[in-house]
Amino acid sequence: MPSPDQEINPGPFSYGRHLLKALLPSKTWNNRVVELARKAKNLGKDDPRKVVHSLKVALALTLVSLFYYFKPLYNGFGVNAIWAVLTVVFVLEFSVGATLGKGLNRMLATLLAAALGIGAHNLAVLFGKTGEPILLSFFVFVVGASVTFLRFLPEMKVKYDFGLMVFILTFCLISILSYREELLIMALQRLLTIVVGSCAAIFVSIFIFPVWIGEDLHNLVAVNLEKLGTFLEGFGAEYFSEPQEGVSIQEKPFLRRYKSVLTSQESEENMASLATWEPRHGRFRFRHPWKQYRKVGDLTRECAYKIEALNSYLNSKNQTSFEIRSRIQEPCTMISLATGKALKDLASAMQEMVQSSSVDSHISNSKIAAENLKALIKSGLWEGVELVETIPATAVVSLLLDLVVCAEKIAEVVHQLASLAHFKSNMTAERSQSIGRSTIQPTSNIDPRENHVINIVE
User: Fold this and answer.
1) Among the listed residues 251, 223, 224, 219, the one whose alpha carbon sits nearest the alpha carbon of residue 238
2) Residues 6+ apart with CB under 8 A from 75
């Protein structure tokens, strides 16, 4: 037998076994594949529009690839036909607004950059073979520096950042390549293929199961308001009830749904910017006031931050005694209920795009309850109670009073939105609903007694 110090030759069979083991998928790799498939399945179930979007991208790529498959088209554009495929990849986004924004940016930027590149080439030619590359390099430097600086401006970055980037790329390509290649034909072919690719992407995005980013923004802002209203409606019962052992806030989802509102600013601003590119569709008119949704979203988040602070006092460790809390129970519960109803009515009115008539009454009730609470505090409510014990309850009172003011501001901004967007009044909405019901049930206006007589006769 070989000693432990001697090296054992594994032989060819052992090497083959190790190689086969390395090639076969390991258990960890199989688990990762299964986990990835499960996530993909859940993603498709949660939002089937993403599956449809994937098919739309594949369809658009297949259409523009015909420039290569059909010889007459390929002879007309040559290798530049690949720019149609690249344009679809860059331009076709999930929503119509994003696709239109990128498509129009790309076409306009390519046109302007091509014209400027041709002009720069014609000007540089006048300086001869020695001066031409020097002047072209100078133009590339000036355009690259100035347009890149423009990308830092907030007004340009929001809507035209992609177009500015394409402008730099196209100008540099045309001005540099013009030194060695035929310029006019190349620029024209590239421009036409980019226009074809952008139009194909826009056509597929609009006419095949379109996803309107403006509608998503509208629903998001309304749902955020509804989440805050749900919390406030349930806050009074939770705060003024006796703490129950073994029951945590995690078991009550309605007390945690508002947290998503705190992180929605970036998505709302991006959606509002993209929605401005969309044409009139569905219930949304041309030049719909998308900027107004930003104001509603900002006030909603301001209200959500106050609710976040209010939520911390639901923890029994931060609460005052039940006896002290019971002294302010009635007005505080009234404030939270009325404010919650106001926010939920605003959310419902936004969803249905009608002007709510009950919001003002809820706001009025919350303001009356707030005045009653202030009067109760001034009447010496905390006499005989140590100051330290009243601090949490005082903080809750202060936050509830701030929420009344915040809800009133939200109502004002939503009313402005309803006016600018021409929301229907309640009377108009109810009339249209009644017409719909009468169309479905033509005998609804018949007196019940007459209907009973008709049934007897039959």
Assistant:
1) 251
2) none
Alpha-carbon dihedral 373, 377, 380, 385, rounded to 10 degrees: 110
What single DSSP character describes residue 353?
A: T
Q: What is the CA radius of gyration of the chain?
A: 33
246-267 as b/e, with b when 16 or more CB fall inside 10 Å? eeeeeeeeebebbeebeebeee
CB contact at 8 A, 185 and 154: no
Which of 394, 382, 340, 397 lies closest to 363, judged by CA? 340
Side chain identity, residue 442: P
Of 252, 254, 248, nearest to 232 (Cα)?
A: 254
Length of the chain: 458
Query: How is residue 281 annotated by DSSP?
Result: B
CB 77 within 8 A of CB 196: no
Burial degree of 49 (CB within 10 A; 0-12, 13-18, 19+): middle
Q: Are 421 and 354 a contacting pair, CB within 8 Å?
A: no
- The secondary element (H helix, E strand) that includes residue 203 is helix 183-207
Measure the CA–CA gap between 219 and 199, rounded to whole angstroms.
29
In 324-379, beta strands by DSSP E: 354-355
- Say which amino acid occupies 239: Y
Q: What is the pLDDT along the chain (458 residues), one digit of tens a residue?
A: 455 544 455 555 555 555 555 555 556 666 777 778 888 888 888 889 999 999 999 999 999 988 888 878 777 777 778 889 999 999 999 999 999 999 999 999 999 998 998 898 889 888 888 888 899 999 999 999 999 999 999 889 888 999 999 999 999 988 887 766 666 777 788 888 999 999 999 999 999 999 999 999 999 999 999 999 999 998 888 888 766 554 555 557 778 889 999 999 999 999 999 999 999 988 898 889 999 999 999 999 999 999 999 988 886 656 677 777 888 889 999 999 999 999 999 999 999 999 888 899 999 999 999 999 999 888 877 777 777 888 888 899 999 999 999 999 999 999 999 999 988 876 544 444 444 444 334 433 334 333 333 332 23
